[in-house]
Write a structure and sequence with these properties.
mainly beta; Jelly Rolls; five-stranded antiparallel β-sheet
Length: 221
């Protein structure tokens, strides 16, 4: 298990900031952490604003992405193809821009932050009269913790940022509509989406410098 505070200066703690976005229908990108989250539910969104409030730099230690459904079942009657949904997520990338979009910080495959390594495809047998049974494919996406960032990364005080999940191709991709998920009611949830989680630490300029020095020393050892 990754220990987020391994090289943190004394007195610095780690906390999560997260935002959840529903993904429905035709999309080219999904944006997280809008300037104001609107109505907030602690289970889905716990940040107050973008930029994050405070008078210290925010060091971003790790990122995790979690699908709202970890078990996705085929449901042809409601236009849900489990393999297609998972493959579309797998093929996407994340982009993190700061300074009003003028500075690109991170461009990485989504698979580096969402755990597809142990995604399993199982066949559930359902009783039926004719034929005797039908097979139903279901995909299980394993949960994952934060993926540590390889390089030092931080938001300056009151620095705005954009965090997006982007899908390849100019035409974008098509997910099942929210109404389809609602009619299917998979695992009791009537919508599909992704929760983006930032693992943050507030640091003064001096603490950022000390943290950076420790990272550089560790990389050489």
């Amino acid at each position: 298990m990754w220990k987020a505070n391994s090289y943190l200066p004394a007195g610095v703690s780690v906390y999560p900031r997260y935002d959840t976005q529903v993904i429905s229908g035709s999309v080219t990108e999904v944006s997280f952490f809008p300037s104001s989250p609107g109505s907030r539910k602690d289970a889905d969104t716990n940040y107050i604003a973008n930029p994050f409030p405070g008078n210290k730099n925010i060091v971003l230690l790790g990122i995790a992405l979690q699908p709202l459904l970890t078990v996705i079942k085929d449901d042809s009657a409601n236009n849900i193809d489990a393999v297609s949904v998972v493959n579309t997520l797998f093929d996407s990338v994340i982009r993190l821009n700061a300074n009003g979009g003028r500075e690109q910080k991170i461009l990485d495959p989504t698979m580096n932050y969402m755990n597809f390594a142990n995604t399993g495809n199982s066949i559930a047998m359902m009783a039926n009269t004719a034929p005797a049974y039908v097979s139903l494919s279901q995909l299980v996406i394993q949960s994952t913790g934060p993926r540590q960032l390889q390089n030092q990364f931080f938001f300056n005080k009151q620095e705005s940022f954009e965090f997006k999940m982007e899908f390849p191709g100019q035409a974008g991709v098509t997910f099942p509509a929210t109404a389809d998920w609602g009619n299917s009611a998979q695992n009791g949830r009537g919508e599909f989406g992704v929760k983006a989680i930032f693992y943050c630490a507030d640091m003064t300029n001096g603490q950022v410098e000390a943290y950076n020095s420790k990272l550089q020393a560790a990389s050489l050892s």
